[in-house]
Each structure stands twice: as structure tokens, then as C-alpha cells.
UniProtKB/TrEMBL annotation:
Record gene name: LOC115184123
Residues in Ig-like domain copies: 126-212, 217-284
Domain of life: Eukaryota
Protein's name in the database: Carcinoembryonic antigen-related cell adhesion molecule 1-like
Family matches, as SUPFAM superfamilies: Immunoglobulin (SSF48726)
Taxonomic classification: Eukaryota, Metazoa, Chordata, Craniata, Vertebrata
Keywords: Disulfide bond, Glycoprotein, Immunoglobulin domain, Signal
Organism of provenance: Salmo trutta
Amino acid sequence: MDYTLFTAAIVFLTSGLCVGQSVLPPGPLTGAIGGRVKFTTTLSPPAKPFVSVSWTFNRVNIITSTTVNITNADHKDRISLDRTTGSLELWNLGLRDQGEYRVSIIPDGALELQGATTLDVYVLLSAATITSPPATLIAGISSTTLTCEAAGNISSIQWIKDGLPLCPSNNITFSVDNRTVHLSPVQRIDNGEYDCLVSNPVSNRTASHNLTVNFGPQNISIDGPLAASTGYRVSLSCSADSIPPATFTWMFNRTETGVNNTLYIIERMEALHIGNYTCTATNNITGLKDSVVHKLRASSAAPMWSFALMVTSVLGVGLLQL
């Protein structure tokens, strides 16, 4: 066997490479403007130094190393070559550094080794924002859009609402590039915090926006006793789901009471207080209102504490008689 071919075979076996196999891992590599990147070969340091190592960028030589290093002027002072493995490090990256990189390595007494990969350079993302047209939104009537923007190369955009992924629905659609969410019409459940996560291979940023959808009043109710005994304090509480919070008015037997808050208090129950109590909730933004009626009647049952006192008294009398 020819000695040169035998030596070449030994080099391939010790390097773990097959004929024609690239000495660079699949690309692309990614880097950020102003950052650094290393093109690392799959080679281990040989017993004898490589005869030569040469790197090209878009087919233009950037460095050739034999007994001396010859470096392209555009890459001087910002590349470093590891001659033991043929790996190359490049820093102070700019968009001009995007493209194809090739390496050619000639081992001592062996066949040439080659590799190729590509480099993508990205601008670091900054100043992510969500914008929306200024408007007062009313559920079931209004529409709006949320637009996500950021300075830099955006590779992907994800939308989050209240900590969960935002998905398309009957009233939610996304633009093709995912930058804009269109809500038409807005609904009560669309209230909440919206986040957009923008990212590229070298950075990510998040922006937040709180969306207020005015709705209601809905689910109005009065909490309080259905019956009350004479002499007792009675409290009726009115509530409704509404954004902004609803205002309340009370009527008693269809007569205005002048009470304009959630609570209607009867300090001392009398016969004249028996009847229908109407609570009306009004939303001053949506212009909607809703009412509910609570019927209060008299109660003849003695309170539990009064009954207990009576039993105790009877037992006491019985014991005295014994």
C-alpha cells in the first residue's frame, strides 16, 4: 500500500471522520450584532500539526495559516484561529458577517478535510410594545386591535392572556405575521392582561397591555332575609357584575327611597316595612340598567336566642321546685 494513502487512512480513523464528511456541524450558526461566534470543528488535535488551515467567507479568503497567518484586512483584529483543531472565532459581529463559511484543513501526510456552514446575524430585540387605538370598549358592540412591535429582527411572536396562550376564537383573529390581534366584537371575557413575547435566536422581549371591556350590569341579586321579626335590624345587600362598577338605587313598593348604595338598612323592623324592595343597578358607560325585586315579609317565629332563654328559665323554675 502507498505510504501516503496509508497515513491518510490512519488520520481519518483517528479523527472519526468518513471520506467526504464535513468537519463542521450542520448550521446555521447564529450571532448577535456586536457579539461573537465560534465555528468549532469536529476534529481532535492531531499528533502532528496541520500543514495548513484556511477559512473563506462567501468564497473570499479571510485567513490562511501555514507557518505564518495571512489574514484578510476586513477581519484583522477580530478573528482568532485555533490551529490545533482548525476552529475559528469571530467577534464584533455585524450584518456584513452573514453568509457562508468554509474551512479547508490539510493534515500532515493526509488528505484535505473540508467543512461548510452558514452564519445568521441578528439585531438584539428591544423596546417591545403593544399598541391599541384609544377607545371606550363596550361588550358586544365595540371592536379593537392589539399590535405588537419591537426594534430588531423578529422571528416569532406569541400572545398570552392572563398567563395562558391566546388562541383564535369566534371573535379573535390573528394577522398572518401574528403581530396583530383583532377582537370583534369584544366580549366580557376579553377583559384582562395581554402579553406579547417577541423573540429571535439571540434575544427575546415581552410587552404587556391591560384591556378594559365595559359590560353589565349582569347577574343582579339582593342578599337578605325573606322574613324579619318586629324590632330587629334588617340589612339588604344588592350586587351586580359590571365594569365599571354599577351605581345602585332602591325603591320600596315602587316609591323612591333616596338610598343610592349597595346596602339598604332597616334599623328597626316594623309592619310598615313589609313589602317589595327593588334594587336597580346602572352602568354609566354602557348605558344599561337592570333591576331585581326582593319581597320582605313579617316573621312570627321567635329568634333562637329568645327561645333558648325561655327554655333555660323553665328549667330553672323546675329545679327550684325540686
